[in-house]
Description:
By secondary structure, the chain is α/β, with parallel strands linked by helices. Helices cover about 35% and strands about 20% of the residues. It has helices at about 60-80, 85-90, 100-115, 120-125, 140-155, 170-180, 200-205, 220-230, 245-250, 270-280, 295-305, 320, 355-360; strands at about 5-20, 25-40, 45-50, 130, 135, 160-165, 185-190, 210-215, 235, 260, 285-290, 330, 340, 350, 360-365.
Amino acid sequence: MKIKEIKLFMIKMPLKMPFSTSLGTVIEREAIIIEVINQDGVKGYGEVVAFSTPWYTEETIQTSYHMLKDFLIPLVFKTPIEQPNEIEKRFRSIRGNHMAKAGLETAIWDLFSKVNQSPLWRYINGTRSEVPAGVVVGSNCIKDALSQIETYLYEGYKRVKVKIKPGSDFQLLKEIRRQFPFLPLMADANSAYTLNDIALLKALDEFNLLMIEQPLAVDDIVEHSRLQQEIKTPVCLDESIVTYHDAESAIKLQSCRVINIKIGRVGGLNNAIAIHDLCQRNGIQVWCGGMIEYGISRAFNIALSTLKGFSIPGDLSASSRFWEEDIILPFVEINNGKIDAPLSPGIGFELNQKRMDQVTYYSETFSNI
Ligand code: OSB
Ligand code: MG
């Protein structure tokens, strides 16, 4: 298949309410929406989930734009593509920059599954037609967190994740557990602790958390192994797992019992699927992590979560969780705590053109001549 044209749309929208992590607060969300068009005019869509500043990973929207424009798009234009799973190899000549790669690679997966007239989730051999929804509370004020959780349970979410950091951990979780004793609950620290905090982290065992996500630093694979030996709560790695090899190392060192797979963080759908398969072979549970994304990226997360190993509800929330109006149609909705995997070809959602026009502040077209 020959890619004839690629368009980049820079978009920006305020979140309905600020989202706080141990590393900072997101108020407005930028993203790059990628449209790839083949020789027959069929279109595929992808989304770059890097943030405006490099707080979660090294990438930003601007570095992603540079990578796409000057390196990745030329690599896609260079020769025809036989299969979408060859793009990851083609991109290996460029180091890192996983979110930029994932945005373009996923657009090509969407395009191929459309050409094959198959829903993406079937194209990648997904095994379930609906996926359990999960939601993240983005406030560390105890009162706000409790009232947000109440609203989300009413909306049907079956799993809640809260953000913790030193000074906003034990007491927050204690209050949540007091009010919701049986809620499937997990805590995400975004690297806020060190092994010096082991007493506190041990104390969290009493809350019966599904897991604690990324308690220690990004490169603390060895330290996480030490920690997992000391605490009962399963350790889940997020930021630490950027490559297939990272996942292999974490499994070998027993640094975690769970891995959060994010398509953007691991450089695309091909790697996400490979890490899923590796975890399946090694008895490691996986779930799909969120990036405060728009509907295009969410659609890929839904498709990925239909794979057999995604046994735990992911950060899979409705369009209305973050957005007044999402950039896709129909909006993602929760029904009885689940999201239906769409039945139409590709990602199964259309671009909401009216909304795209409102939120696009820059665009550029690249032609393969
Ligand atoms: O650490 O999982 C994280 C959002 C942005 C950056 C990092 C993380 C998050 C979330 C997911 O917690 C929020 C969501 O999209 O539902
Ligand atoms: Mg996380």
